């Protein structure tokens, strides 16, 4: 526990930290990578370049300080971070490295404003937060039968098939034909690839797109093409160089964006673009276990040709007699599919006749897409506790309200 003095010092310094938090976290990463260049293999350099990871760490430190007295609000945030860490195999000793450089970065950026008392208070807070994360991560490793820092599991690519004009599905199995850890519908996997151009390894997460299975895993990867920003490193390497028979290094199935099957309340699944992947895993699991559950599926995309796994969705809908599907397409097809109600343009939930007010809601897509749907839902009588979401990058949606 933090002493009341430490707590008030932290709360008093939250505003100044908030003002400088992005400088602090940027300086922190530069400092840590200078002393520990091997950690560049662990962090997503695309997120570093775009500044998103800095914002996520900043958000977590701020949220922790601001809510230190409010464990109920912190719990889901810690859970999400711990799942991400566990998918990456983060070890307790690495907290020493991060702690040392984070505290040094606070001292160096704040200068004289960072008095020894303030630094000691933040040191205590960091370690309290670190211990909470280490404890949750230890539990996750135990549940997955995984050791923090163990050599990553190898899986063999047994099939690759198109999932849309710009997405491929990769089927993965144990190279010796053994069983794999199973996963929950909605979870993801970390995949590590060497990037020869950088002389580094890079890790990315991909949601499972099949129903939970301990023999075959499937992930579906959209190619991130060059636009105003560089082409995506790993998605392009997966599309261009990975072949059937290759082995990939992967972490344990992780993630807390999972289908709640302890209830049979109606379910609203909203996805945009490649954000459909975890929702497809959920649809397939519903067919197996709750085929009569009321499902309202809303998907947004450019056209069905660019909507990953649309052919899967069409088949899955046939196995869910109480499911309704709505598609919002920016370029509607000449021959509209019969399985869905088609709406031109971007997703607008006002186009729906009604959404059951007790629905469990699962959102996955770009941040602007999720912000728009979440805003609409909150303005139309839904409670924040009904809404779960997955961000395909560092969580900038801000779990805490
Ligand atoms: C939990 C989770 C689940 C996911 N599930 C899926 C999934 O099922 N399917 C899927 O396709 N993806 C999924 N993703 C996203 C995936 O992990 C990758 O982020 C995605 O494939 C892009 O990786 P990349 O290496 O190709 O791109 P990166 O190289 O990481 O680039 C990412 C973005 O950063 C930009 N960028 C790079 N350098 C700079 C720079 N210098 N300045 C500005 N911007 C820059 C790139 O242009 C690109 O837009 C998921 C992510 C998470 C966190
Ligand atoms: C108290 C300490 C820590 C906090 C508060 C913290 C916070 C975070 C947050 C908020 C994220 C983003 C989660 C998401 O939304 O996806 C994250 C991801 C990550 N963390 Fe930590 N972390 C801590 C310790 C560590 C340690 C010790 C390591 C190991 C060196 C580490 C490595 C990573 C990596 C590699 C990612 C993924 C980054 C990416 O893919 O861009 N973290 N962490």
TrEMBL record:
SUPFAM superfamilies listed in its UniProt record: Ferredoxin reductase-like, C-terminal NADP-linked domain, Globin-like, Riboflavin synthase domain-like
UniProt-listed Pfam families: FAD_binding_6, Globin, NAD_binding_1
Main EC class the enzyme belongs to: oxidoreductase
Gene Ontology molecular-function annotations: FAD binding; heme binding; metal ion binding; nitric oxide dioxygenase NAD(P)H activity; oxygen binding; oxygen carrier activity
Record-listed E.C. numbers: 1.14.12.17
Gene Ontology process terms (BP): cellular response to nitrosative stress; nitric oxide catabolic process; response to toxic substance
Domain FAD-binding FR-type: 150-260
Domain Globin intervals: 1-138
Cofactor section: heme b
Keyword set, alphabetical order: Detoxification, Dioxygenase, Heme, Iron, Metal-binding, NAD, NADP, Oxidoreductase, Oxygen transport, Transport
Catalytic reactions on record: 2 nitric oxide + NADH + 2 O2 = 2 nitrate + NAD(+) + H(+); 2 nitric oxide + NADPH + 2 O2 = 2 nitrate + NADP(+) + H(+)
Ranges annotated as spanning the membrane: none
Protein's job: Is involved in NO detoxification in an aerobic process, termed nitric oxide dioxygenase (NOD) reaction that utilizes O(2) and NAD(P)H to convert NO to nitrate, which protects the bacterium from various noxious nitrogen compounds. Therefore, plays a central role in the inducible response to nitrosative stress.
Family affiliation: Belongs to the globin family. In the C-terminal section; belongs to the flavoprotein pyridine nucleotide cytochrome reductase family.
Name of the molecule in the record: nitric oxide dioxygenase
Organism of provenance: Chitinivorax tropicus
């Amino acid at each position: 526990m933090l002493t009341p003095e430490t707590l008030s010092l932290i709360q008093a310094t939250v505003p100044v930290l908030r003002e400088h938090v992005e400088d602090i976290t940027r300086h922190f990463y530069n400092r840590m990578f200078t002393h520990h260049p091997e950690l560049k293999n662990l962090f997503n350099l695309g997120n570093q370049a775009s500044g998103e990871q800095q914002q996520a760490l900043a958000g977590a430190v701020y949220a922790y300080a601001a809510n230190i007295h409010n464990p109920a609000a912190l719990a889901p945030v810690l859970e999400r971070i711990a799942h991400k860490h566990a998918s990456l195999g983060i070890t307790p000793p690495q907290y020493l490295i991060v702690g040392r450089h984070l505290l040094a970065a606070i001292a160096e950026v704040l200068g004289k404003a960072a008095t020894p008392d303030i630094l000691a208070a933040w040191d205590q807070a960091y370690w309290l937060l670190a211990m909470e994360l280490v404890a949750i991560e230890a539990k996750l490793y135990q549940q997955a039968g995984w050791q923090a820092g163990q050599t990553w599991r190898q899986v063999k690519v047994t099939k690759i098939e198109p999932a849309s004009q710009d997405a491929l599905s990769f089927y993965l199995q144990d190279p010796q034909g053994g069983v794999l850890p199973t996963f929950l519908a909605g979870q993801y996997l970390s995949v590590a690839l060497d990037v020869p151009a950088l002389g580094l390894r890079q890790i990315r997460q991909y949601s499972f797109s099949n129903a939970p299975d301990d023999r075959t895993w499937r992930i579906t990867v959209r190619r991130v093409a060059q636009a105003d920003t560089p082409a995506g490193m790993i998605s392009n390497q997966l599309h261009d160089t990975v072949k059937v028979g290759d082995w990939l290094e992967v972490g344990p199935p992780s993630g807390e964006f999972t289908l709640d099957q302890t209830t049979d309340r109606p379910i609203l699944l909203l996805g945009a673009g490649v954000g459909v992947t975890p929702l497809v895993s959920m649809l397939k699991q519903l067919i197996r276990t709750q085929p009569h559950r009321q499902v309202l599926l809303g998907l947004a995309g450019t056209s069905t040709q660019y909507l990953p796994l649309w052919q899967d969705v069409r088949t899955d809908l046939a196995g869910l007699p109480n499911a309704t599907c709505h598609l919002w397409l920016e370029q509607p097809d000449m021959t509209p599919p019969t399985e869905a109600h088609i709406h031109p343009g971007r997703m607008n939930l006002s186009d729906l006749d009604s959404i059951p007010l007790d629905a469990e809601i699962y959102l996955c897509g770009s941040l602007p897409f999720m912000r728009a749907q979440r805003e609409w839902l909150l303005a139309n009588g839904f409670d924040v506790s009904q809404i779960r979401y997955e961000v395909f990058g560092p969580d900038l949606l801000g779990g805490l309200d």
